[in-house]
Amino acid sequence: MYKILVSDPLAEAGIEKLMSVPEFEVEVNTSLTHEELREVVKECDALVIRSSTKVTRDVIEAGDRLKVIARAGIGLDNVDIDAATRKGIVVMNTPEGNVITTAEHTIALLLAVSRNIPQADASLKAGKWEKKKFRGKEVFNKVLGIIGVGRIGRVVADRAKGLKMQVIAYDPYISSDVVERLGIEAVSLDELLARSDYITVHTPLTQETRNLLNKDAFKKMKKGVFIINCARGGIVNEEDLAEAIKEGIVAGAAIDVFTVEPPPPDHPLLNLEKVVLTPHLGASTDEAQENVAIAVADQVIDYLLKGTIRNAI
Ligand code: NAD
Ligand code: MLT
């Protein structure tokens, strides 16, 4: 028998799939403290997570039977991959299932920030009728600069072209030929910063991308640019963004992800009117959650029963 612990909320379809395997004993417990997790993991062969469970070195070291840590979703910021690899534990994610959903959220944020939709909604619900105050901007024919043309960046580009935006992109790890074949103009980072009316980031958070959009980068942007971050907190420096908004360089920002989640009450973006915020909702649709739950279940089943490894990091 294999013991499977699901320690974050996972869509029912994935849990049912895991439970249908006769060789699996599945425990779903989404309220474990870190100390409790360290105890429970001792008996587990697989740990299935989303983003809340912090799979730190001590948890991994306690997992003497642990064979696989499987993330329903993309980002593995909450897993100590080095510690897992050293212990011979496979770490896998589900890189496909929430791509469309996250790209759609990016486009939703882009339109929301352009047309002041959340602010206007709050104002109307507060009994006001402020038509002048919430005049927005068309996105038609505007330049959208995409940083990171991976799975999500490509879908964002495709949807933005449907809105008749001019899409340019910077990605040092994808050849400009490939980018151009996607119908996107490949440019340098500096050119993207200088030309874009909207900038959206779709990279992982790495040493290289942390603070990629910082004070210096904001200085190179067009006055009136809009910034969207639906990737990872920290790629856009939050203090510098707040400053750039106050200075009038940035006209508005839409942010789904934060350096610390949830952001503390004194976070510099929380009280700025030109900022639209969502609580890490990029992947939060019924469809995406079902996709990643089914994918993670299939991958754990295939690995434990057949030794087939998919989407290992
Ligand atoms: P991906 O790996 O498919 O693509 C990332 C791209 O970024 C790659 O093409 C890579 O070459 C590029 N890149 C890496 N370093 C770069 C740099 N320094 N400058 C420019 N480009 C660089 O990843 P993805 O699936 O498209 O995910 C993108 C991001 O979105 C990740 O951070 C992921 O965690 C995040 N994400 C967020 C949500 C959410 O809920 N908000 C949901 C899913 C994914
Ligand atoms: C991801 O990395 O997949 C997203 O951030 C969504 C999530 O938190 O699951």
Automatic annotation (TrEMBL):
One MF term in the entry's GO annotations: NAD binding
Species whose genome carries this gene: Thermodesulforhabdus norvegica
Entry function: Catalyzes the reversible oxidation of 3-phospho-D-glycerate to 3-phosphonooxypyruvate, the first step of the phosphorylated L-serine biosynthesis pathway. Also catalyzes the reversible oxidation of 2-hydroxyglutarate to 2-oxoglutarate.
Top-level lineage group: Bacteria
Pathway in which the depicted protein is active: Amino-acid biosynthesis; L-serine biosynthesis; L-serine from 3-phospho-D-glycerate: step 1/3
Reactions this protein catalyses: (R)-2-hydroxyglutarate + NAD(+) = 2-oxoglutarate + NADH + H(+); (2R)-3-phosphoglycerate + NAD(+) = 3-phosphooxypyruvate + NADH + H(+)
EC code(s) of this entry: 1.1.1.95
This protein's name: D-3-phosphoglycerate dehydrogenase
Family per record: Belongs to the D-isomer specific 2-hydroxyacid dehydrogenase family.
GO biological process: L-serine biosynthetic process
Keywords from the named record: Amino-acid biosynthesis, NAD, Oxidoreductase, Serine biosynthesis
Residues of the signal peptide: none
Keyword NAD tagged: yes
KW Nucleotidyltransferase (keyword) present: no
